[in-house]
Design goal:
It contains ten helices and no strands. By secondary structure, it is mainly alpha-helical.
Length: about 210
C-alpha cells in the first residue's frame, strides 16, 4: 500500500505540472515542482524497489527529470514567448545540463570500475602498500546521485519567475555540475588499475610481514 501511495505521489505530479505549464499558472507550477523534488528524494527510502520498478516500465529517473524540465520550458514559452533569445539560451542550457550529467556518470562509473579490480578479498588486511587512492565525497562518486540530478531545480523553479531567472539558474546549475564532474578527474587519474600479477601480491605480502615484525 505504501508503495502505491509513493508511486501515485511521484507520478501524479506530472499531469498537474503539464496543466499548470499550459494554463499558465506559475505559482501552482512552482509549488508542484518543489513537491515533486521532495517526493523524488524520499521515494527510494520510502519504497526501496521503486526506482528499479519504474525503470523497468520506462519511467526511470532520467525521463522524469527530463519531463519536468520540458514542462518548465513550456511554462516559459507560455508566459514569456518562445521567440526570445533567452528562451533559446534556456533550452540550450537544459540540454547542456544533461551532457554534464552524462560526463559525471561516465567518470563515476570509470572510477568505480578501476577501484574494484582487487583480485582477492582484502577485508581486514593492511593494503596501504598498494597506494589505493582515497574515494571522493559521496555525491561525486555516486553515478546515480539524486543530489547531482536535482541541480536542474534551479532553472525549473526559476521558470516560475520568468525566462531570465530560469536561464540564470540553468547557467549556475551547469557551472556547478561541470565543477563536480571535473573534480572527479584527479581521482580517476590516480585510480590506476591495481596490479594483479602474483609478483605484485608476493611483494605486498612480504612488505606486510616485514612491517608486522617491527
Amino acid at each position: 500500500m505504501r508503495r502505491l501511495i509513493v508511486i501515485a505521489a511521484l507520478l501524479g505530479c506530472y499531469p498537474v505540472l503539464l496543466v499548470a505549464a499550459l494554463w499558465p499558472a506559475p505559482v501552482l507550477f512552482g509549488a508542484v515542482a518543489a513537491a515533486s523534488y521532495l517526493v523524488e528524494y524520499a521515494a527510494p527510502r520510502a519504497a526501496r524497489p521503486l526506482p528499479e520498478l519504474l525503470a523497468k516500465v520506462h519511467l526511470g529517473i532520467t525521463l522524469r527529470f527530463a519531463a519536468r524540465e520540458t514542462m518548465a520550458l513550456l511554462l516559459v514559452a507560455r508566459t514569456a514567448g518562445a521567440e526570445l533569445p533567452w528562451f533559446a539560451a534556456l533550452a540550450a542550457g537544459m540540454l547542456a545540463i544533461h551532457a554534464v550529467r552524462a560526463l559525471h556518470t561516465g567518470l563515476a562509473l570509470r572510477l568505480r570500475q578501476m577501484l574494484s579490480r582487487m583480485p582477492v578479498t582484502t577485508r581486514n588486511l593492511d593494503v596501504s602498500g598498494l597506494r589505493i587512492p582515497r574515494m571522493p565525497p559521496g555525491p561525486l562518486r555516486d553515478a546515480g546521485s539524486v543530489a547531482f540530478l536535482c541541480l536542474d531545480a534551479l532553472p525549473v523553479l526559476g521558470s516560475v519567475l520568468g525566462v531570465v531567472p530560469a536561464t540564470a539558474g540553468a547557467a549556475v546549475a551547469l557551472a556547478a555540475g561541470l565543477a563536480g564532474a571535473l573534480a572527479l578527474i584527479p581521482y580517476v587519474r590516480r585510480a590506476r588499475p591495481s596490479p594483479t600479477g602474483p609478483g605484485c601480491w608476493r611483494s605486498w605480502a612480504s612488505r606486510s610481514r616485514s612491517t608486522a615484525r617491527r
